[in-house]
Amino acid sequence: MNYLKSHITLILSLISILISIFMFRTFDNILKLYEQNIVNNYSIVVVSDSIINNLDIPQIKKIEKIDIKEQISALQQKYPNINFKNIKLPYFYNLKLNYLPSPNELKNLKNSLLNKPFIKRVLTHSTSQTKIYNLLMLLKSITKTFMFITAILGTLLIIKQLEVWKLLHSERMYIMELFGAPFWIKGAALFKIAIIDSFIAIIITLGLIYFITNSIIFESIINELNINFKINYLQEFGILFIVSFAISLISSIIVVMSKK
User: Fold this and answer.
1) Which of these, 58, 106, 110, 67, lies nearest to 89 by C-alpha position?
2) Per the UniProt record, which residue ranges are transmembrane (predicted)?
3) What is the mean pLDDT of residues 180-187?
4) Are 105 and 59 in contact (CB under 8 A)?
5) Long-range pairs for 60-64 at CB < 8 Å and ≥24 separation?
6) In a domain? residue 217
7) What is the DSSP letter of 102?
8) pLDDT for 6-45, tens place per residue?
9) Are residues 168 and 222 in the same domain?
10) In this structure, are 29 and 60 located in the same domain?
11) Is the Cα dihedral 39, 45, 46, 51 positive or negative?
């Protein structure tokens, strides 16, 4: 019974690490897609006295002229006594950016635009943009911190469990050491246990991942964010496979080579 509990402890530790890594990668990819979606829909409005073709500012990806014919027609109907055709109106432009700028970057960008003599006004919607940016950065920090904490605690738990198994096989390992056996033969029992449990952990983790990513809740969240997010299960399997076996083997080597 204790032997079975030991296996379950190691498997659950690996699963928690693999799940945290997968969730971090998935959440990071979702945030990147959502951030790009925000960038595509976000723009800075500038009012200029002259036509703008190029601003020589690296953050600006695209310059789009705003057609104000409808607004002029509405004003003409509202004020029929004024001939707006004889009034020289400024030019309005939407500036599309390459990425979502930080509040400081946005402030510097606004100042750079206002330094242009022909630009009279800049609308950055900085309040809403700052809130979105800070929220995205907070979510990234939380997921990264959670992944590292889970990985560290899980790895320490795996090492402790392998040390218990080392004590159970200590007599056989001691005899092998007396005969000059290399460490990979001396610790063959631990390596075998670690590899088997790693394989079991990967299978269970992939099952959980498939269940989570195909759930109604997960799909509804993706639809609400309005992003095109697809999971490459083969790629995720490869990454988790490498991580799982690397953690198990490295933990086993540390335990076998330790003098406790």
Assistant:
1) 67
2) 6-24, 145-162, 174-191, 198-217, 237-257
3) 58
4) yes
5) 60/95, 60/96, 60/97, 60/98, 61/96, 61/97, 61/98, 62/95, 62/96, 63/93, 63/94, 63/95, 63/96, 64/93, 64/94, 64/95, 64/96
6) yes
7) -
8) 677 778 888 888 888 888 888 888 888 888 888 888 888 8
9) yes
10) no
11) positive
pLDDT at 191: 74
Q: Is residue 138 part of a domain?
A: no
Model confidence over 75-128: pLDDT tens digits? 677 777 766 666 677 888 888 888 888 888 888 888 888 888 888 888 887 666
Q: Three-state SS across 40-65?
A: HHCCEEEEECCCCCCCCCCCEEEEEE
Maximum alpha-carbon separation in the chain: 107
State how far the Cα of 227 lies from the Cα of 27, in Å rounded to an integer.
13
N- to C-terminal Cα distance for the chain? 25
Q: Are residues 114 and 149 located together in one domain of the fold? A: no
Do 18 and 83 belong together in one domain? no
Residues 17 and 75 in one domain: no
Q: Is 137 inside a domain boundary? A: no
Is 133 a member of any domain? no
Q: How far apart are CA 160 and CA 48, in angstroms?
A: 67
pLDDT at 259: 53
What pLDDT, on a 0 to 100 scale, did the predictor assign at position 129? Answer: 66
Q: Which of 91, 124, 157 is the last residue of a domain?
A: 124
| Segments forming the whole domain that contains residue 6 | 2-37+143-257
CA-based nearest residue to 49, from 137, 116, 97 = 116
Residues 241 and 147 in one domain: yes
Mean pLDDT of 62-66: 85
pLDDT tens-place string over residues 193-240 = 778 888 888 889 888 888 888 888 888 878 877 888 888 888 888 888
Does the pLDDT at position 130 exceed 60? yes
How far apart CA 249 and CA 244 sit, in angstroms, is 9
The answer to whether 112 touches 56, Cβ cutoff 8 Å, is no
